[in-house]
Amino acid sequence: MEHFSRRGMLRLTGAGLLTFAAAGSLAACGSTAVGSTGGDGATGKITVWSWTSAAAALRGVVPDFEKNNPGITVDVQDIGNPAIWDKITVGMAAGGQGLADVLHIGCDYLPGYMEKFPGGLADLAKYGANDHKADFVQGLWPTVTGKDGGIYALPWEVNPLGFFYRQDFFKKAGIDPTAFKTWDDVIAAGPDFKAANPDASMIAIDKPASGSPDLDFFQSLLQLQGAFYFTLDGQITLGSDKAIAAMTIIKKLNDAGLVGDAAGEHGWSRLVGANKVGIAPYPAWAADYLATKFPDQTGKWRLAQPPAVTAGGKRAAIVNSTNLAIAGSSPNKMAAWKFIQYALTTPAAMNTMFKSGGVFPALTSAYTDPVFSQPETFYGGQEVLKTFTGLLAEGADATNYSGDYARALKLVSDAQVKVFLKNGDPATVLKDAAAQLAQQTGRKIA
User: Fold this and answer.
1) Which residues neighbour 387 within 8 Å (Cβ) at sequence distance 6 or greater?
2) Which of 19, 144, 148, 288 maximizes the CB count within 10 A of its CB?
3) Confidence at 15, pLDDT banded by 50, 70, 90
């Protein structure tokens, strides 16, 4: 499962997240200034830390960069995921010692590094980062901006939410999924779907959270509403009306018998492979994953705009993203900046990486490439990537994972399990989770 392993947070397991939360305690009471011994060297060797396909993609643009930037050599290292989070966190806690110059950091870790390790990442505004603010998908710039107004990374990957569905299942039931306006419409279509496809569920979720939280769907429902576990200024929103609305949709789907249990190792893939799942509300990475993992289902899947949570609500959301940052301890920050700027703000470089199997680009000017308008055989000739770029053009809201995401993740997972297995009331379990999170973190409830 390449995509899941590439971004462990897509399954939101958080082995590394929990390590990060624990390592945060190395910083006395949560905040430690990282002693930077770095410099602004414009030449020399720079090291880049990434993982798997993303690392390979970065290596693909190194030759052209080095050719046009004599005096700079680039060494891209595949650290692995989640190993990279342990290495970065330990390096931050050690005052920046042993860190690479350039760090590939996910949206779930970046806020924590900015909060807990002031000075651990270089402020890229010093090198002209703000000149690129309008170059990236709406909703990403706030996630790389610190409370002090500094810019601590440039966006690389963006994953807009999609609504993948089995065309054959819905056609058999006489249902047109493109007509769904809200998730209540999806639930209302449930009886007809089940009557036509008795062996299939509409959606699959690991109900008991066997081994790890399975909150992808819940989080996407929040993000469709411009919400998450925290406000942009860090207040807790787990017990908000929007959070309750999201969990209520999950409960309604489950009460209607529309949620298949994806418990166990590779549970979701097992059910999809057995033709027992009709809907996959997943982001852009899933387009390639489904086609690669289930070739026998060619022509059966389609992609539509996600239904809104409430009538007239937004139908576009950024599920997650990753970024490139520069360690505050780097002795060659200017050289590192030149590489980041080239890799992430040059359309040709971004598309070279994307076509090699890299991540979905956050740079909007990259979307003019013909690759984003190609029909996909697996999806019945549909222009899947064009659908995603269209969703991104609608604009999406920023998500603040904060430095306490791991704690929130565990509490929300427990709340969802209570809904699934104990018929828990969404409002009750979420308000209780919010109170516990406030007690654990000292954050205010919005």
Assistant:
1) 162, 303, 304, 305
2) 144
3) very low
